[in-house]
Design brief:
Elements: H1 10-18, H2 25-35, H3 46-59, E1 63-67, H4 73-81, E2 87-92, H5 95-107, E3 114-118, H6 121-130, E4 137-142, H7 149-159, E5 160-169, H8 185-198, E6 203-208, E7 214-219
Parallel strand pairs: 1-2, 1-4, 2-3, 4-5
Antiparallel strand pairs: 5-7, 6-7
Helix pairs in contact: 3-4, 6-7
The structure holds S-adenosylmethionine and calcium ion.
S-adenosylmethionine (SAM) binds at residues 42-44, 68-71, 73-74, 91-94, 97, 120-121, 143-145, 148.
């Protein structure tokens, strides 16, 4: 026993999955399909998807935003956890992968919950603000280009209602955040956002060591 978060070995990870995953069959097939693609590491892990579903249900979230869709696994998790009238404003810059996402959303009968916006996510989020939708969203998931993470955070914070939650993916960046020899722009962007959030009094936070590290920031 320890008062520090456990290190997850392969066998502990296997045990965790075997004893907790309840992955919907549409999610499993999308994961299997994406696994064959070179970029499959961009997809969140199934236990993270299930954790996010739990967050959506705990919060009773209805209006949500996703920044970074790829083949649609995280959005499908959220869509399946939302109530029938729940919505996701989904943002991605290209249809190359979202075409796959749309097929799986259709199969899972959640296509009508997802409003897919193709274009730079900064523009989509700014448009929501310009349309008077600040302070109205319950949950946002940030998982697109790391260089814009701080922009996404600030825009999403405006769009969230007080008590709304921002989840930010890849905040431990395969451990690179602690390696001082790594100074590329993505790593620096994540480091600087982590540092900023640590002292950001507008939110309550936790860095959850699930997947590649998931920061939860609750708007006060
Ligand atoms: N959340 C997805 C999942 O679990 O499968 C993975 C998202 S993947 C890590 C990042 C996505 O962000 C890519 O599909 C990419 O096209 C998109 N992206 C990159 N730059 C973007 C931008 N400026 N605006 C919107 N989306 C962008
Ligand atoms: Ca990610």
């Amino acid at each position: 026993m320890s008062n520090q978060t456990i290190s997850i070995t392969d066998s502990i990870y296997k045990y965790l999955c075997e004893n907790s995953l309840r992955e919907d069959e549409n999610l499993s097939s999308l994961r299997a399909y994406t696994y064959r693609m070179e970029q499959h590491n961009m997809q969140i892990s199934p236990e993270q998807g299930q954790f996010m579903q739990l967050l959506i249900k705990i919060m009773g979230a209805n209006k949500t935003i996703e920044v970074g869709v790829f083949t649609g696994y995280s959005s499908l998790c959220v869509a399946l956890a939302l109530p029938v009238d729940g919505k996701i404003i989904a943002c991605d810059i290209s249809t190359k992968y979202t075409d796959i996402a749309e097929k799986y959303w259709e199969d899972a009968k959640v296509r009508d919950k997802i409003d897919l916006n193709i274009g730079p996510a900064i523009d989509t989020l700014q448009k929501l603000i310009d349309n008077g939708l600040s302070n109205t969203f319950d949950f946002t998931f940030i998982d697109a280009d790391k260089i814009n993470y701080d922009n996404y955070y600030e825009l999403c914070l405006k769009l969230l209602r007080p008590g709304g939650l921002i989840a930010i993916d890849n905040v431990l960046w395969s451990g690179d955040v602690v390696d001082e020899r790594i100074n590329d722009i993505d790593t620096e962007s994540i480091r600087s956002l982590n540092k900023k959030l640590h002292i950001d009094s507008r939110v309550d936070i936790s860095i959850v060591p699930i997947g590649d590290g998931l920061t939860l920031a609750l708007k006060k």
